[in-house]
Amino acid sequence: MASPLRFDGRVVLVTGAGAGEPRAGPTIPMAGLRRAAAGCLAGAGTGCGGGVGAGVEIRRRGGKAVANYDSVEAGEKLVKTALDAFGRIDVVVNNAGILRDRSFSRISDEDWDIIQRVHLRGSFQVTRAAWDHMKKQNYGRILMTSSASGIYGNFGQANYSAAKMGVLGLCNTLAIEGRKNNIHCNTIAPNAGSRMTKTVLPEDIVEALKPDYVAPLVLWLCHESCEENGGLFEVGGGWIGKLRWEQTLGAVVRQRNQPVTPEAVRDKWEKICDFSNASKPQTIQESTGRVIEILHKIDSEGVSQNHTSHSTSTATSGFARAVGYKLPSFSSSYTELESIMYALGVGASVKNPKDLKFVYEGSADFSCLPTFGVIIAQKAMMNGGLAEIPGLSINFAKVLHGEQYLELYKPLPRSGELKCEAVVADILDKGSGIVIVMDVHSYSGKELICYNQFSVFVVGSGGFGGKRTSEKLKAAVAVPKRPPDAVLRDSTSLNQAALYRLSGDWNPLHIDPSFASIAGFEKPILHGLCTFGFSARHVLQQFADNDVSRFKAIKVRFAKPVYPGQTLQTEMWKEGNRIHFQTKVQETGDIVISNAYVDLVPTSGVSAQIPSKELQSALVFGEIGRRLKDIGHEVVKKVNAVFEWHITKGGNIAAKWTIDMKNGSGEVYQGPAKGSADTTIIISDEDFMEVVLGKLDPQKAFFSGRLMARGNIMLSQKLQMILKDYAKL
């Protein structure tokens, strides 16, 4: 025989355990508590009864027990009794119950309210009081007591049936929310004789349905080795059965550009109610997933949505007014801090030396990741701008990010303020929903820096008879049908979404477990644009050596969600200067970004964004070289150092110069050091001229961040000797 189930070290709280005879209502708790290290018995909440008889019986059998006489509506007091006596709580059995049976027309407010308070509110109050303690110890078992009356209904028990079905709904949600903390919640619907049921059942039936036959199921569901969670069981007389929901295949009752009518429902009623080949959904995701599948099927077959309140012509004209609507222009300012925060949010790390340029502002070639461009433009989508568009009367809780396109006309400045202009480029009718195409152009002064196209899908707003395609929409492109040329992987952190949201996407879907659950996810999901950033980094690293000047454009289609902690795998195909890619979750194999590509600037096409002749510093370096030419040998002896200068314009490196006062007779030339530089100095063209003219103190420039240096910084003190004493600037 297998080893007996024991509850050593566990503290069990059972409500409804003290109402009268020790072998009627209290039989269920006694059976469990005599196996437990400690237990707490509580009354039903009616003010009568007590745990004396039950407690005596438990202690007689070697257990420990305390009684509590408070109502279950005072759940905190019940739990406090257990905590004060035993220091913890492991199991809660919500067993308290009373009856106030009346036919529906005779139920008084008092009859209704007291049943809800004891059964439903009582279960809520006791469980809530124990919940945080269970979360902290990462363990808990909760049992709810429902009834066949709640599941099937029963004459004269409308109040009781409603409360007992409510208990089941409470259990279903607690099973989802408690799963990650090893808290399991199940529901039983017992047919058992007790003090309560003696008022409605004959004595011989009560004896045949004695609680002794229910207790073993209670013990198993409350045991630490039981993995059952969210289950519903009928039990009685030595029989146990599990219940589940069934869903018919149903029927579609819509026709192209025609309203749904009650006659159409009538005509399909037999099919709607046909349980042949029925499915058995177990989660809200499975249930709503079925609806989404039908919507996609309807979309592909060109069947319209229901229009019971608005005519097709009205909807068409409304959406037509929205196309071309310009949102108020807005500004996006940022510093190196925001750029670095974004880079960390999309997985850049000091573990990869080549990522240092994205996360350290002192890096000689510090750069914004190209995909930071979406952060600049996202205010158009994040600040509720869509809700202000005339003609768009839609439920924005049903908005999904479908596709994204980003094009850069030059590398993003390391810091700056860009003016953004957003316009509704087009609206497409996909039947099961609409696609809103939003174009956002971002300017530095009058110069266009980047262009974003957001494509958002609004579920359930389609079928108005509009066009299905648009030449304005940047097309997604399928990946080649051959093995990828390169694959890169990155593990996301459990804090990835928490970090990425600091870049401005505050949607609680990505941080709040409760909100994510309401949206149909088991936990918060990663931002789609975060996955977008990871993927673009992979392409830039693999095919452009992290050279941001080679990044031209990116287009992606979002396919499935990612959970923080999962590993992203980017598969890439090179075809000329276009890198096709798709991104998968390594653990599941699910494609989360599809039909995507990055366009790169050809290597031969990469040149300095600003010609050296347009930089004032170029004239100065030329003059330094001329003035040091005849005395270079003397300067080399005194300086013995190589200085590399990175001159920036608009936040980007525009030119590199080297002053070599270490080798031969010295040399000044354009470009990086031919060997290694002892000191590298990064400064803007404007600030360089201020320093040369004596208007800006180099030390103050360094501490204010206007001048940055790396390498042997102390050698920079010799620059005054070069620039002032010898070059005589």
TrEMBL record:
Reactions catalysed, semicolon-separated, are:
(3R)-hydroxyhexadecanedioyl-CoA + NAD(+) = 3-oxohexadecanedioyl-CoA + NADH + H(+); a (3R)-3-hydroxyacyl-CoA = a (2E)-enoyl-CoA + H2O; (24R,25R)-3alpha,7alpha,12alpha,24-tetrahydroxy-5beta-cholestan-26-oyl-CoA = (24E)-3alpha,7alpha,12alpha-trihydroxy-5beta-cholest-24-en-26-oyl-CoA + H2O; (3R)-3-hydroxydecanoyl-CoA = (2E)-decenoyl-CoA + H2O
Tell where it localizes: Peroxisome
- In this chain the SCP2 domain maps to 626-724
- The domain of life is Eukaryota
- Pathways involved: Lipid metabolism; fatty acid beta-oxidation
Spans traversing the lipid bilayer = none
Q: Which UniProt keywords apply?
A: Acetylation, Fatty acid metabolism, Lipid metabolism, Lyase, Oxidoreductase, Peroxisome, Phosphoprotein
UniProt GO MF annotations:
(3S)-3-hydroxyacyl-CoA dehydrogenase (NAD+) activity; 3-hydroxyacyl-CoA dehydratase activity; 3alpha,7alpha,12alpha-trihydroxy-5beta-cholest-24-enoyl-CoA hydratase activity; estradiol 17-beta-dehydrogenase [NAD(P)+] activity; protein homodimerization activity
Domain MaoC-like residue range list: 478-595
Q: What processes does the entry annotate via GO biological process terms?
A: alpha-linolenic acid metabolic process; androgen metabolic process; estrogen metabolic process; fatty acid beta-oxidation using acyl-CoA oxidase; fatty acid derivative biosynthetic process; long-chain fatty acid biosynthetic process; medium-chain fatty-acyl-CoA metabolic process; Sertoli cell development
Q: In the UniProt record, does the keyword Magnesium occur?
A: no
Residues annotated as domain Peroxisomal multifunctional enzyme type 2-like N-terminal: 333-460
Q: Give the SUPFAM superfamilies listed for this entry.
A: NAD(P)-binding Rossmann-fold domains (SSF51735), SCP-like (SSF55718), Thioesterase/thiol ester dehydrase-isomerase (SSF54637)
What does the sequence similarity comment in the record state about its family?
Belongs to the short-chain dehydrogenases/reductases (SDR) family.
Subunit structure comment from the entry: Homodimer.
Q: What does this protein do?
A: Bifunctional enzyme acting on the peroxisomal fatty acid beta-oxidation pathway. Catalyzes two of the four reactions in fatty acid degradation: hydration of 2-enoyl-CoA (trans-2-enoyl-CoA) to produce (3R)-3-hydroxyacyl-CoA, and dehydrogenation of (3R)-3-hydroxyacyl-CoA to produce 3-ketoacyl-CoA (3-oxoacyl-CoA), which is further metabolized by SCPx. Can use straight-chain and branched-chain fatty acids, as well as bile acid intermediates as substrates.
> What's the protein called, per UniProt?
17-beta-hydroxysteroid dehydrogenase 4
